[in-house]
Design goal:
heterotrimer, A mainly alpha (331), B alpha+beta (381), C mainly alpha (273), A: 331 residues, mainly alpha, MetI-like fold, two-stranded antiparallel sheet, 1% strand, C: 273 residues, 11 helices, disordered C terminus
Chain lengths: 331, 381, 273
């Protein structure tokens, strides 16, 4: 008896050890390449590495302070906020609408689904190249109306340097000023019109994904709930608004997180489509970081930008991961 | 006035006739139960009435108004679903108020109606809770409440008791009957459980494979089934069926089923005389086979010999599984019976409660009389 | 047969959007198939008069080696990261030990970080390992940073394999490796398909790591080469379009042929987070 017990104990521990051993390489790899490197970047961010030769002299948070005061970075923040709001918003609206339509027992649903989803399969670089030409001022979408006899558009798309903002001397501007928020009436808090072009390209790429998520969510709602609502007196639109949409909140949240964290990191698309744009209209932190680090050799500044990006993404993602894993545990 | 009429209603899915030429009239304030085995079309029938599916052919009238093309929300009906279909993200109050809100009713009036219904159903304390926090019985009452506040012309029920445990089911059956009496509105109720049908219905409609088999009061269906299917479906445990032949002539007909030979009384013989020689199915309910020692006074008995195979003690009665020759039968007898497994015994058959069906058409060849004391005065149109 | 106008409206919208989504592909195809004379910005929307493959040939010549580089990098990276993901998912779902949940959370976080925050150390480390600037450096990079997502997908997939199977195997005497080899691995095909498609697509389409880790144009993968082509002033725009199509072709083909598994994986909640 005792002999068996000891053998069992040894087998159990050896199996646990084997399990741990199997996963250790990955853990170590991620530990080093993710957490270790983040720490290293943080170190660089508080150093004075400004040339090709590494320099780890400690300078505290001065890099961050300089960044916040640097106009290009301020514009980057503005651009990121604008891009995120429009991109996530457009994807949610379009994705949900298409899903709601496809949910209605449509002929060729599979085909439509495939068409809306395929842009996800191509690289952001490809997307950028194509949409650069589609939205070029003297070509693409602008000349399309000529095909049906209408005059061509002369819109500037991503070459348009204009920033839509509240003017200080408008009525809204005065109202803001009275409320002590006068600083909002400034191009720094406006919408760079060129960004819309990038939003269009990005939405083309990702809205199919949101659509699939919503479609799966809609399919998961029991038919009886909708039948009950119909008998209760709701029209199809009312059912969407009062029944389906609220029950889809988890999907909406997941979509916002996934899209949101992508938009904070956006790089490839901007790189191939418009670069920094006129007057930095489409500049983004990732682009700034890349240029300043690998072309300007200002490693510390680049590291500081990357740490700011990391913090922004973490603010979004960590609460979500908690919420999501907690929910799974409860199920 | 909410009379419901199905006029030659058919619902087809491809080659399958879910509902086949159904013509049925449901009177105002009736409690009509649609009953039948799964797949018989009863759920489809009320979904057609609710407007959740369009009819393939035929007309449906609610309160003498043709509703074929009227969408569900304008038919003034309320429905209780099998799974209750409560909106999980809304509170009990909001669940009950939803239909009224969709119709643009004023907030105060909504509140009043919901309060009233909640009081009547004893769920006032649950108004703020969400469905996930309620028990099965509570959810069922919320589903009821949601239907009641609408004050519709017709209430539809789709197997609302099947998710409840046995004890709760019995309790709720009684409550539903009381509710029907109080609300004085037409109830159309779907179930596969013939016990629910027998206990609650003012009339029952039996369906099989999309076809209406018979419609009548519970007594009609129990004592005077139109065909073998209805006879076997209504009543639990089910009726015993024996294959046999009708022999003899005029006043002396016999049912010949090999080991079982039954000489029919004069009146019966007369009405069956025209079918002499026909192959028949004899129907005897288990409760109509008695232990001769404990025979009820009014029964005109006919002796049959049988061999006991298994006995089951049910408490208030005993089930005897017997063989007459090679024919298995079930008898429900007084629990004091001295019959034991393996014994040869004599049973008394209640000759007035024998059913005879044509073996080929399955239809009843004649009908027995409903006992005096169970007869109701016919309902006036 | 009554025409329900709501159905007409639905189909109209769906078809309209389908056209919008296909618009770029149309332009890509049409431009690539035109002869050099026909390629003019003002005539972007016109159909080609005949089928010419000049643009494609020129683009292919330019991207030729880069496409090969992409394949040389993507295939090993995909295979290895699939295996790692499978083993990790297996351990995390069937052999839980104290702290495995926290470990998983920490692993997942790696999926969301902006890679900018690890670029500088990554470059330095790869240089130390003497793989900087080579395709192997890229393979290592993609394998490591692919661990979180592949682990996630496999974990969700293996959660659906009943634990009773593993327990029965344990009683039968199998070891942790034996159970994987004989029970879990044979059941993993759908999981591998989803992960392989996802990784192939992600790694092929990656730009940031590619442009950071490799600097020699002969070594760079297709995405970087395409971007260079797009940014240059000498290359004609029709060649750029043809190049874009060529560079996108492998992932598009994977999508068209194996796309249903892609969608199935997404709809099954692999991306729930």
């Amino acid at each position: 008896m005792r002999f068996d017990g000891r053998r069992l104990l040894r087998r159990v521990t050896s199996e646990q050890a084997a399990a741990v051993a199997l996963i250790v390489p990955s853990v170590v790899a991620v530990g080093v390449f993710v957490y270790g490197f983040i720490g290293w970047s943080a170190l660089v961010a508080v150093s004075r590495w400004d040339t090709v030769r590494p320099d780890y002299t400690y300078v505290g948070l001065s890099n961050f302070r300089n960044l916040i005061e640097y106009f290009r970075f301020q514009i980057d923040i503005r651009n990121t906020v604008v891009f995120t709001l429009f991109f996530v918003g457009a994807c949610l609206v379009i994705g949900f609408s298409l899903a709601a339509l496809l949910d209605r027992r449509v002929w060729g649903e599979g085909l439509f689904r495939s068409i809306y989803l395929f842009p996800m399969a191509v690289s952001f670089i490809v997307t950028g190249v194509v949409w650069r030409w589609l939205l070029a001022p003297r070509a693409g979408v602008n000349i399309l109306p000529e095909k049906v006899g209408l005059p061509a558009l002369s819109y500037g798309w991503y070459t348009d340097a204009h920033v839509m903002n509240i003017h200080a001397d408008s009525r809204l501007g005065d109202a803001l000023h009275a409320a002590g928020l006068g600083f909002l009436a400034d191009p720094n808090y406006g919408i760079p019109v060129a960004m819309i072009s990038v939003v269009i390209a990005a939405t083309w790429q990702m809205s199919g994904f949101v659509m699939v998520m919503y479609l799966a969510g809609l399919r998961a709602i029991p038919d009886e709930l909708r039948d009950a609502a119909r008998v209760d007196g709701a029209s199809e639109a009312q059912i969407l608004r009062h029944i389906s949409l609220p029950l889809l909140r988890p999907v909406t949240l997941s979509a916002i997180i996934i899209l949101g964290h992508q938009s904070l990191k956006i790089f490839d698309l901007v790189m191939s489509m418009s670069r920094r744009g006129p007057g930095f209209a489409t500049d983004v932190p990732a682009l700034f970081m890349f240029e300043t680090t690998f072309q300007g050799n200002h490693f510390s500044q680049g590291a500081a930008i990357s740490i700011v990006m990391l913090l922004a993404v973490s603010l979004l993602v960590i609460p979500y991961l908690f919420w999501s894993l907690r929910r799974e545990a409860r199920l | 006035m909410a009379r419901v009429v199905y006029e030659h209603v058919t619902k087809r899915y491809g080659d399958v006739f879910a509902v086949n030429d159904l013509s049925l009239e449901i009177r105002d304030k009736e409690f009509l139960v649609l009953v039948g085995p799964s797949g018989c079309g009863k759920s489809t029938a009320i979904r057609l009435l609710a407007g959740l599916e369009p009819v393939t052919a035929g007309n449906i009238y609610i309160d003498d108004r043709l509703v074929n093309d009227i969408p569900a929300r304008d038919r003034d009906i309320a429905m209780v679903f099998q799974s209750y279909a409560l909106y999980p993200h809304m509170s009990v109050y909001d669940n009950m108020a939803f239909g009224l809100k969709m119709r643009g009713m004023h907030k105060d009036e909504i509140r009043q109606r919901v309060q009233q219904a909640a009081e009547a159903l004893d769920i006032e304390s649950l108004l703020k809770r969400k469905p996930a926090q309620l028990s099965g019985g509570q959810r069922q009452r919320v589903a009821l409440g949601r239907a009641i506040v609408r004050e519709p012309q017709v209430f539809l029920f789709d197997e609302p008791l099947s998710n409840l445990d046995a004890k709760l089911r019995v309790q709720t059956r009684a409550e539903l009957s009381k509710l029907h009496q109080r609300l004085e509105t037409t109830f159309i109720y779907v179930t596969h459980d013939q016990v629910e049908a027998m206990t609650m219905a003012s009339r029952i409609a039996v369906l099989k494979d999309g076809l209406l088999q018979q419609v009548g009061t519970p007594e009609d269906l129990y004592f005077r089934p139109d065909n073998v299917f209805v006879a076997g479906f209504i009543g639990s445990p089910a009726m015993n069926f024996i294959a046999g032949t009708l022999r003899g002539a005029a006043e002396e007909m016999t049912l010949d089923a090999d080991a079982l030979q039954v000489r029919l009384p004069a009146e019966r013989s007369r009405s069956l005389a025209t079918h002499a020689g026909a192959a028949v199915t004899i129907g005897i309910r288990p409760e109509d086979l008695h232990d001769p020692d404990f025979l009820p006074a009014r029964v005109r008995g006919y002796p049959v010999r049988a061999r006991v195979d298994v006995t089951e003690m049910m408490g208030n009665e005993k089930f005897l599984h017997v063989f007459i020759g090679t024919q298995p039968l079930l008898a429900r007898v007084d629990p004091r019976t001295r019959a034991r497994a393996g014994q040869e015994i004599e049973l008394t058959l209640d000759i007035d409660r024998l059913h005879v069906f044509d073996a080929t058409t399955q239809l009843a060849l004649d009908k027995i009389e409903i006992p005096e004391e169970l007869r109701e005065t016919p309902v006036r149109e | 047969m009554t025409i329900r106008w709501s159905r007409v409206a639905i189909y109209t919208v769906l078809i309209l959007f389908a056209l919008l989504y296909l618009m770029p592909i149309y332009v890509l195809l049409v431009t690539g198939l035109k002869s050099f004379q026909e390629v003019r910005l003002e005539q972007m929307w016109n159909l080609p008069s005949g089928l010419r493959f000049d643009s494609f040939r020129e683009a292919y010549d330019a991207l030729d080696s880069n496409l090969a580089n992409s394949f040389k990098m993507v295939i090993p990276a995909t295979v290895v990261s699939c295996m790692l993901g499978s083993v990790n998912g297996y351990v995390l779902t069937k052999w839980r030990f104290p702290g495995s949940d926290i470990l998983f959370f920490l692993l997942l976080y790696g999926m969301f970080i902006p890679y900018q925050s690890v670029l500088i150390p990554l470059v330095k480390t790869l240089q130390q390992l003497h793989v900087y600037g080579s395709l192997w450096g890229l393979v290592v990079t993609h394998v490591v940073y692919g661990i979180p997502i592949t682990t996630l997908i496999f974990r969700n997939y293996y959660a659906n394999i009943p634990t009773e199977l593993v327990e029965a195997a344990k009683i039968d005497g199998a070891s942790i490796f034996g159970i994987y080899r004989r029970i879990v691995f044979p059941l993993s095909l759908p999981g591998f398909v989803v992960v392989a498609i996802w990784q192939f697509t992600s790694i092929w389409n990656d730009f940031l790591f590619a442009v950071t880790v490799t600097s020699n144009p002969t070594i760079q993968p297709a995405t970087v080469a395409l971007n260079n082509m797009a940014g240059s002033y000498i290359v004609e725009w029709n060649v750029q379009m043809a190049g874009a199509l060529i560079a996108a072709l492998p992932t598009l083909i994977v999508y068209i042929i194996l796309g249903r598994f892609f969608v199935r994986g997404l709809m099954a909640g692999a991306m729930r987070g």
